[in-house]
From TrEMBL:
<feature type="domain" description="Radical SAM core">
    <location>
        <begin position="178"/>
        <end position="409"/>
    </location>
</feature>
<dbReference type="InterPro" id="IPR038135">
    <property type="entry name" value="Methylthiotransferase_N_sf"/>
</dbReference>
<dbReference type="InterPro" id="IPR007197">
    <property type="entry name" value="rSAM"/>
</dbReference>
<dbReference type="InterPro" id="IPR058240">
    <property type="entry name" value="rSAM_sf"/>
</dbReference>
<dbReference type="GO" id="GO:0005829">
    <property type="term" value="C:cytosol"/>
</dbReference>
<dbReference type="GO" id="GO:0046872">
    <property type="term" value="F:metal ion binding"/>
</dbReference>
<dbReference type="InterPro" id="IPR013848">
    <property type="entry name" value="Methylthiotransferase_N"/>
</dbReference>
<keyword id="KW-0808">Transferase</keyword>
<dbReference type="Pfam" id="PF04055">
    <property type="entry name" value="Radical_SAM"/>
</dbReference>
<dbReference type="InterPro" id="IPR023404">
    <property type="entry name" value="rSAM_horseshoe"/>
</dbReference>
<feature type="domain" description="MTTase N-terminal">
    <location>
        <begin position="2"/>
        <end position="113"/>
    </location>
</feature>
<dbReference type="InterPro" id="IPR005840">
    <property type="entry name" value="Ribosomal_uS12_MeSTrfase_RimO"/>
</dbReference>
<dbReference type="GO" id="GO:0035599">
    <property type="term" value="F:aspartic acid methylthiotransferase activity"/>
</dbReference>
<protein>
    <submittedName>
        <fullName>(Dimethylallyl)adenosine tRNA methylthiotransferase MiaB</fullName>
        <ecNumber>2.-.-.-</ecNumber>
    </submittedName>
</protein>
<dbReference type="GO" id="GO:0051539">
    <property type="term" value="F:4 iron, 4 sulfur cluster binding"/>
</dbReference>
<dbReference type="InterPro" id="IPR006638">
    <property type="entry name" value="Elp3/MiaA/NifB-like_rSAM"/>
</dbReference>
<dbReference type="Pfam" id="PF00919">
    <property type="entry name" value="UPF0004"/>
</dbReference>
Length: 460
């Protein structure tokens, strides 16, 4: 059998699918190798949500071509559907092919992607991320050295002061959530792509038609996880709230109720749910949250300006959304996680200030500040009044400062019993880590394994 090397710079949703592809190839006897030099063929899944990730994908493809000049290179993922011409122009590689993962699996293993997905259980410790010593260099970082060192310091503080700051930090910090959880959990993809047509977004083109996974398949995986003692279930999808089983009999509340009924210990994290289905099913979500059955909600509000949301084609009432989220924030233990898209075409200073105000008001535990990146083929790409990179960068940095201060305020509560000089130092480092992660555009970093007091930091 031919030797294959798999790599990616994609989101958790797409990397889940690459794990399914890997499982199917292994099932048919293919050998997966740890570096491109050893491969007859490389399968690379690329992200195209932002221009930076397309450029990162091209850089990695060029590295593959340099290190493995005779290997065939199959490009898949969103970048294959949205940016094929750009990739071809930007790389020196000549032996490229562009295919969907399902087609790659059928061509190489004569297996249907959905059949493998139905039976494949994701190992929460396997992410197909490159080891920098033998794999590819990439910008898609997750935790980073600064945050790893903060965890080490918080462990020492907790031992000294009998506090619980480390757990709070990990539970409410990007990178640890979803990727480096302390307790066993199960990721299950329940939907793929998105039914909405936001003017800035390339996901529908990159991920294809919106589909939902059969309820029986989801429940089978969830039941197996519970049987193994994994009570934290992460529901994955580019938009989970519009879940509708292929037979049409199960919607999002039915999906959730069926999973929760497997055991009173089951808790769910939901990545992602859009504001529209969140509001539609708010009473259900509030009830589950109040009962302690929802651990985290990842909800992308994107802007605090009604005018900007209208141009984005994201029509929901912010006043109502604000009240609903404030109720969950104040009365439950749910971690709220959200995205903010800054610098949309024609966004005024006043509209940016409205976003800053809403970010402060909602006070999410985790906030991701994302600079607008015009994606070719989307309506926003051709809109008038595109903002300058300097303006976008300035606003991203300003909102980042707000987010960093919010993070510090939250962590001060966990350090209230700690000596002032000690807490002041760690708070300063937490602020710098938040500022560095977002302002330098290092959105995600290589997972840092934290086991008890043993910390291994991977630095790219």
């Amino acid at each position: 059998m031919r030797k294959l090397y798999l790599a990616h710079n994609t989101c958790l949703n797409s990397s889940y699918d690459l794990n399914v592809l890997e499982a199917g190839l292994i099932q048919k006897g293919y050998e997966l190798v740890s570096q491109p030099e050893d491969a007859d063929e490389v399968i690379y899944s690329g992200c195209s949500v932002r221009e930076k990730w397309v450029e990162d994908a091209i850089s990695q493809i060029n590295e593959i071509a340099r290190r493995a000049p005779n290997a065939e290179i199959s490009i898949t993922g969103c970048v294959a559907n949205t940016s094929m011409d750009k990739v071809q122009k930007g790389t020196s590689a000549t032996n490229l092919s562009f295919k969907a993962m399902s087609q790659i699996l059928m061509d190489k293993a004569e297996l249907r992607f959905s059949d493998v997905d139905d039976t494949h259980v994701q190992d929460y410790n396997v992410e197909l991320k490159s080891d920098s010593s033998v794999g590819l260099q990439n910008l898609r970082l997750r935790v980073g050295e600064e945050k790893a060192s903060i965890v080490a310091s918080l462990q020492e503080i907790d031992r000294t002061y009998q506090s619980s700051s480390e757990g709070r930090y990990r539970r409410t910090t990007k990178g640890f959530v979803f990727y480096n959880e302390q307790d066993p959990f199960e990721r299950i993809t329940v939907t793929r792509s998105c039914p909405y047509k936001c003017t800035f977004c390339s996901i529908p083109k990159g991920r294809g038609e919106f589909t939902s996974v059969a309820l029986s398949s989801v429940l089978s995986k969830a039941r197996e996880a519970v049987d193994q003692g994994k009570y934290h279930i992460v529901l994955l999808g580019d938009e989970v709230g519009n879940y509708r089983s292929p037979d049409g009999d199960a919607d999002f509340p039915t999906l959730v109720e069926n999973i929760l009924s497997l055991s009173p210990k089951v808790e769910l994290s939901i990545r992602y749910i859009e504001p529209k289905p969140f509001q539609k099913y708010y009473s259900n979500i509030m009830s589950w949250s109040a009962d302690g059955r929802i651990r985290l909600l990842y909800l992308s509000v994107q802007s605090g300006s009604h005018n900007v949301l209208r141009k984005m084609k994201r029509g929901y009432k912010l006043d109502r959304l604000n009240k609903q989220l404030a109720h969950i924030r104040s009365s439950t233990s749910v971690v709220l996680y959200g995205n903010w898209l800054i610098g949309f075409p024609s966004e005024s200073e006043k509209e940016f200030d409205e976003t800053v105000s809403l970010v402060r008001s909602l006070n999410f535990h985790i906030n991701v500040v994302i600079p607008f990146s015009a994606r070719e083929g989307t309506p926003a790409y051709a809109m008038d009044e595109q903002l300058s990179p300097e303006t976008i960068d300035d606003r991203v940095k300003r909102l980042t400062e707000v987010v960093a201060e919010m993070k510090c305020n939250d962590m001060r509560e966990a350090l209230v019993s700690v000596e002032a000089s000690v807490s002041d130092d760690i708070i300063k480092r937490i602020r710098l880590a938040e500022r560095s992660q977002y302002a330098n555009d290092q959105e995600e970093s290589e997972p840092t394994r934290v086991m008890g007091n043993l910390i291994e930091v991977k630095i790219l």
